[in-house]
Amino acid sequence: AMLTHLCPPSMTFPIQHALLHPRRLTRPAPALDLTRRLALEFRPVDEARFPMLRLAHEVMRAGGTAPAIYNAANEIAVAAFLEDRIRFPAIWSVVERTLAAHSVTTHPDLDTLLAADSWARQHATTLLD
Question: What is the number of other CB atoms lying within 10 angstroms of the CB of residue 108?
Answer without folding.
Answer: 17
